[in-house]
Amino acid sequence: MKKILLTVAVITAGLVSSNAMAAGDAAAGKAKAAVCAGCHGAAGISATGMWPNLAGQKAAYLVKQLKAFKDGTRKDPTMAPMAAPLSDEDMVNLAAYFASLK
User: Fold this and answer.
1) What is the pTM for the complete model shown?
2) How many domains does the chain have?
């Protein structure tokens, strides 16, 4: 019984943490997103098919991808150095900003 309660507590804490992270600060993300505009467009819509559109993507997906670029599980010679200096908070804020765009 204790094991089940512990498992439920851990899952609940993870969900609360994920929800808090998903919220982010879109205004702070917008300020950080200026450097992203060169490839992904000023409003998150890329001018070419070479780079993906970020506008309207789900925030959790964007955070996951940025973390993967940062930790090297997803490899890209352009994105790895862009993600490297980002904090978890920066990633959440950027994701909130791009998720808010149409």
Assistant:
1) 0.78
2) 1
